[in-house]
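WP5 quarterly update. Target: DNA-directed RNA polymerase subunit. Source organism: Beta vulgaris subsp. vulgaris. Length: 100 aa.
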Amino acid sequence: CSGTYGYTILVTHLKSYGKGLFNVDTGWAHFPVKYLALVFRPFRNEVLPAEVFAVNQSGVFARAGPLEIFVSQLCMPPDMQFDSGSESPAFVSADQELRI
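Structure tokens (predicted):
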């Protein structure tokens, strides 16, 4: 992942490539390549669909593609309370309508 460009999901078109250089220290070959790609670059405070994989009293852990997300309990509405007594830990709203 690059902070500037994000995650490369799929290379859609190879525009050009050049002659490779061999790195004797690592054994890797480096090629100059220009391409068009589908990228995933989320922004701070962007709303993303994500799958929750863990919940504890500190907050919620989720995945959106290759990105792992943590939402702190401090960033949740004040009526959301941690409930560890049910079959799986969750944050539940006071009116019991929302459950994370």
